[in-house]
Write a structure and sequence with these properties.
alpha+beta, Spore Coat Polysaccharide Biosynthesis Protein SpsA, Chain A, 23% helix
Length: 327
């Protein structure tokens, strides 16, 4: 198994983690996924693990046994369930405590819910773009009217207050367009966009990114799932397509679904500021952001980012992004 069967990251590494199961049985594992936290033995089979998980997420409750072909704590189980459109709630206080303190030794156990049937927390849609991309961004908005009633677009241009733009499918005042100069600080631009949200959570996308309306429709339920688990930030996988070819840089998780009060940090490769506590966020696998890139942009962007924030430009990504995806 090169990639984790849960999140598809190629970040499997040796581990000394163990899980404790009901009845007291303890099991040690040889490898762990550094991205989502799934546990494996050295000879674990990808297809067998996926089939086992799907079968165990088909009911109303899941409790993994010591003889499962993999191991999960409840924090990783929550992420694993989202691939199948499911959510996980803690069964009792001990499981809730384990959810808040990953990666616990407590073997995964949880109540299964269908995300589509869950209560919803309203989510704004925020988009960053350049002036030349604005009309294309607006043209794609109507497809999202079924899941959000608030859209903010922030254009990289001299600052102007938000103005309403009528878009089919939305209420007359639902879509607003503002402008602010990026000025080489991506976190500051995202924070300005966060400030335009009129709902409790916001999904942010760039003009060269797309999230299908079907995947976006589950975001209000995921926000509710996050609040039930005291999380404030949710990451989505991103598929980087360079001149249409899927890059090996995957899942390239982007933490773009956040409480509106969340602040980003970092002039480049910005991330939500979780105060050093990564446990306040988790990954959803129900859909992926599609990211369109050109080879010319890939060649130039890391150099540009390095100039903006020396030491953080990730110069190695220019090569990594050009590697074709390998399962």
């Amino acid at each position: 198994m090169r990639r984790c069967f849960v999140c598809r990251a190629d970040t499997l590494e040796p581990t000394d983690r163990t899980l404790v199961y009901p009845g007291g049985a303890r099991r040690a594992f040889a490898r762990a996924c550094a991205s989502c936290g799934a546990l494996f033995d050295a000879g674990a089979d990808d297809a067998a693990c996926r089939a086992h998980l799907a079968a165990h997420l088909a009911g109303e409750m899941v409790r993994l046994a010591p003889d499962a072909p993999y191991g999960l704590d409840i924090y990783t189980l929550r992420t694993a369930a989202t691939r199948l459109g499911r959510g996980i709630h803690a069964m009792d206080a001990a499981d809730h405590a384990a959810l808040l303190r990953p990666h616990s030794e407590r073997a995964a156990c949880g109540r299964i819910v269908d995300l589509a049937a869950m209560p919803k927390v309203p989510v704004s849609l925020g988009l960053l773009c350049r002036p030349e991309d604005l009309e294309a961004v607006l043209a794609g908005l109507s497809a999202h009217a079924a899941w959000t009633r608030d859209v903010a677009v922030l254009v990289d241009a001299p600052e102007t207050p938000p103005q309403v733009r009528v878009v089919a499918g939305f209420a007359p005042d639902a879509v607003r367009i503002g402008a602010r100069s990026l000025a080489g600080d991506f976190a500051a631009q995202r924070n300005a966009l966060q400030d335009l949200a009129r709902l409790p959570w916001m999904l942010q996308l760039d003009a060269d990114e797309e999230l299908s309306p079907a995947a976006a429709s589950l975001l209000p339920a995921l926000a509710a799932l996050a609040e039930a688990g005291e999380a404030v930030s949710i990451g989505l996988p991103r598929r980087n397509r360079v001149d249409g070819i899927l890059s090996d840089v995957y899942p390239d998780v982007q933490y773009r679904l956040n409480r509106a009060t969340m602040r980003f940090r970092g002039r480049v490769h910005e991330r939500p500021d979780l105060g050093g506590d990564w446990r306040r966020g988790f990954i959803t696998l129900h859909g992926a952001i599609e990211h369109r890139l050109s080879r010319a942009h890939v060649a130039a962007r890391s150099v540009c980012y390095e100039a903006l924030d020396p030491g953080r430009g990730r110069l190695e990504e220019a090569t990594a992004l050009l590697r074709v995806y390998r399962p």
